[in-house]
């Protein structure tokens, strides 16, 4: 362990502290080592005799003089802490000017992945003949990402500019995948905060900027999409400055560089009126304003695992940024997991990133992002450390889930016909594997061995998991999403969200009336030049319980005929707002098993809208449509027309069915009531009643009514 003489500051450090910004990777201090009154940047006597524990930066570049004024209790500093360090007089720090580590953060659809495309193409990652074939959204390699047009998983790449390696981390913009942002920001020293030149700062912009400040990152603001006809960069810059003023915890954070870009054309400039032909101003801004990692080459190796991967040839990959020391193939390491268990292992291969691929390396020093193999039991949040006395780094702090649903074994009469993985053991194993990489997810056992409670950050978060398992061949059934409540001082608390809606004036009545029934409260309304660029555009802001947003998106898009956008951000937990009237009409429920026929569906369409086409297999208790009135209605969609002696050549041809309403996964989840389930198979999505038999449902309703009377 390293020592530092009493009352001696590190070279070129003023006062009694260090700056918690990216240039300084502050040392983590636990109360059992140094006492609860420890301050970052001050020296205190440690438990070892004759030692002074120096709560200083692991990496301090020479000549950087600004003293820190933040205590250990400061959340912004504390989340940046990495490890306890015992310093010596002869400690030497070297700045790695050949590396920059940046994360690209923004609200959804503000152009993060498109910007990465341009950076890759202009950094000579691809040869001339390859540029035409790479297309767009290069980093969105996942099939679901390309289908939905959003980034789901955080991914990193590396480019070279002027002899400097720039590790670029592309992050999701949707609020449901905020856990991906939280875990990868620990690898960055700076970030690019993208803001749309029309929309300005949105809810997720606020979230990612707050996290960046907590990590000690200094953002470069990139105002993107200046080619939009209604671009208003001056207003966006002013709104962004207001956001910085609201969230900043240090005066220095109010000063930030600004770059203006048209990402899809690969152009950037330092003023809105002078956009250059390439990204040269952006590259220069990265090299100038993102601090280079400063390292101690003699320190023992330390790395926090922030992502996992798998290769068919080398097995599991543990990915993260090296905090201290260096790594070589064959080196022995200790793996300290989040439960305090220590495992020993040996590194087989060391990889760094270049372009879209990995290259094998013989030695990698601190400051770079690497992938290691040979450690099969490692998980996200574990610390890999070398030396005789390995110490764990603070684990990744992820906000808790707000929405939950149940995953269970498929119990319908058609179960086992389409899926390959059906049993509770297979479903449990798959959910357990998901926990290794999906840090925002939680899985719990229930009273039934065949049912599991799965909690996530939102409907989309859970829907992506369902769709992924479905495509892998799993067959199961899920319940309606529900919010996760807390009990605080005897009061029920529920999650509340800040909802922003951009739409047109003619739909204000519909939006406010619909949200009023969902217990939303309007906090702001003003005219705004939105996506359509019309003078009639308005922006509405609400606070609303999270349960009020379940099922609202589809209703909103239908009611506004697609002329609107909405986004939300979790505000926190507040007392239960009361009962919410969001009832829908009853369901058309199949009364007989068989295959749906035209005659039976025609009868069903006289009573409501149908969800299935002729020839689809149905079973008793399966939901085949939506009733026109309240209450469920039993209907036999397998009923054929009775044969008679009367013949009419055109009688059967005359039957015309209205095209069925085919529900997507998200719409199916929104449709579900408390007594309904969604059957998920690789080929079909089937809505069904929880109790399939009519007699069972009648007895359940009677028992529920009796219990309500007794209560």
Summarize the structure.
The chain is an alpha+beta fold and 711 residues long. It is 21% helix and 28% strand.
- Identify the overall geometry: globular
Shape-level CATH architecture of the largest domain: 3-Layer(aba) Sandwich
Main sheet specs: 9 strands, antiparallel
CATH class of the largest domain: Alpha Beta
Tally the helices.
Answer: 17
Low-confidence stretches: 1-91
User: Alpha-carbon distance between the termini?
Assistant: 65 Å
Can you put this structure into words, describing what you see?
The chain is an alpha+beta fold and about 700 residues long. The chain has five domains: about 100 residues, no CATH class; about 190 residues, P-loop containing nucleotide triphosphate hydrolases (Rossmann fold, 3-Layer(aba) Sandwich); about 90 residues, Elongation Factor Tu (Ef-tu), domain 3 (Beta Barrel), CATH 2.40.30.10; about 90 residues, Alpha-Beta Plaits (2-Layer Sandwich); about 120 residues, bipa protein (OB fold (Dihydrolipoamide Acetyltransferase, E2P)). Helix content is about 20%, strand content about 30%. It contains 17 helices and 40 strands. The strands form nine sheets. Strands 12, 13, 14, 16, 17, 18, 19, 21 and 22 form a nine-stranded antiparallel β-sheet that branches. A seven-stranded mixed β-sheet has the order 5-6-4-7-8-9-10, sandwiched between helices. Strands 23, 24, 25, 26, 27, 39 and 40 form a seven-stranded antiparallel β-sheet that branches. α7 links the parallel β7 and β8. The chain is globular. The relative contact order is 0.08.
């Amino acid at each position: 362990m390293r020592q530092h003489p009493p009352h001696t500051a590190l070279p070129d450090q003023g006062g009694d502290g260090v700056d918690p910004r990216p240039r300084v990777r502050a040392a983590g201090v636990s109360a059992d080592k140094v006492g609860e009154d420890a301050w970052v940047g001050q020296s205190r006597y440690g438990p070892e005799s004759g030692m002074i524990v120096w709560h200083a930066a692991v990496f301090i570049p020479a000549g950087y003089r600004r003293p820190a004024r933040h205590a250990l209790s400061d959340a912004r500093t504390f989340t940046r802490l990495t490890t306890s360090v015992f310093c010596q007089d002869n400690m030497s720090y070297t700045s790695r000017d050949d590396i920059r580590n940046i994360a690209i953060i923004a609200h959804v659809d503000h152009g993060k992945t498109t910007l990465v495309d341009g950076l890759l193409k202009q950094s000579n990652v691809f040869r001339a003949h390859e540029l035409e074939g790479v297309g767009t959204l290069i980093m969105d390699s996942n099939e679901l990402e390309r289908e939905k047009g959003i980034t789901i998983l955080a991914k990193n790449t590396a480019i070279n500019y002027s002899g400097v390696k720039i590790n670029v981390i592309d992050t999701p913009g949707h609020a449901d995948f905020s856990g991906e942002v939280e875990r990868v920001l620990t690898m960055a020293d700076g970030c690019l905060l993208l803001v749309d030149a029309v929309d300005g700062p949105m809810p997720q912009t606020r979230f990612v900027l707050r996290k960046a400040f907590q990590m000690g990152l200094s953002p470069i603001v990139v105002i993107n999409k200046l080619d939009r006809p209604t671009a208003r960069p001056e207003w966006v810059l002013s709104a962004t400055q207001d956001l910085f003023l609201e969230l900043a915890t240090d005066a220095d954070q109010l000063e930030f560089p600004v770059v203006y870009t048209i990402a899809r054309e690969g152009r950037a400039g330092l003023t809105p009126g002078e956009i250059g032909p390439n990204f040269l101003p952006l590259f220069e801004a990265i090299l100038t304003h993102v601090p280079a990692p400063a390292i101690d080459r003699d320190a023992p190796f330390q790395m926090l695992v922030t992502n996992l991967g798998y290769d068919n040839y080398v097995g599991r990959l543990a990915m993260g940024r090296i905090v201290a020391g260096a790594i070589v193939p064959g080196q022995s390491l200790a793996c300290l997991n989040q439960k305090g268990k220590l495992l020993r292992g040996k590194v087989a291969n060391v990889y760094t990133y270049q372009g879209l691929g990995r290259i094998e390396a013989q030695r990698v020093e601190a400051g770079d992002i690497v992938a290691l193999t040979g450690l099969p039991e490692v998980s996200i949040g574990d610390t890999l450390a070398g030396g005789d006395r390995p110490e764990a780094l603070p684990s990744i702090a992820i906000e808790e889930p707000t929405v939950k649903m149940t995953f269970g074994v498929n119990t319908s009469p058609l179960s086992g016909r389409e899926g390959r993985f059906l049993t509770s053991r297979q479903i449990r194993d798959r959910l357990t594997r998901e926990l290794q990489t999906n840090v925002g997810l939680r899985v719990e056992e229930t009273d039934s061995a065949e049912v599991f409670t799965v909690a996530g950050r939102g409907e989309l978060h859970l829907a992506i998991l369902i769709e992924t398992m479905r495509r892998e061949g799993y067959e199961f059934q899920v319940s309606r999403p529900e919010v996760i409540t807390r009990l605080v001082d005897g009061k029920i608390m529920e999650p509340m969200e800040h909802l922003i809606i951009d739409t047109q004036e003619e739909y204000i009545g519909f939006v406010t009336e619909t949200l009023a029934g969902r217990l939303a409260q309007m906090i702001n309304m003003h005219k705004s030049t939105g996506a359509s660029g019309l003078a009639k555009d308005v922006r509405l802001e609400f606070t609303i319980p999270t349960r009020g947003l379940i099922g609202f998106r589809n209703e909103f898009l239908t009611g506004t005929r697609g002329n609107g956008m909405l986004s939300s951000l979790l505000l926190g937990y507040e007392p239960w707002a009361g009962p919410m009237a969001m009832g829908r009409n009853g369901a058309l429920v199949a009364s007989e098993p068989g295959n749906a026929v035209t005659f039976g569906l025609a009868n069903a369409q006289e009573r409501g809208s149908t969800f299935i086409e002729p020839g689809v297999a149905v079973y008793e208790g399966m939901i085949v449509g939506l009733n026109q009135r309240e209450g469920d209605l039993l209907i036999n969609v397998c009923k054929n027309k009775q044969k008679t002696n009367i013949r009419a050549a055109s009688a059967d041809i005359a039957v015309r069915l209205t095209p069925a309403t085919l529900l997507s996964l998200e719409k199916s989840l929104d449709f579900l009531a408390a007594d309904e389930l969604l059957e998920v198979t690789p080929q079909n999505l089937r809505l069904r009643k929880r109790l399939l038999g009519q007699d069972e449902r009648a007895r359940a309703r009677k028992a529920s009514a009796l219990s309500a009377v007794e209560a």
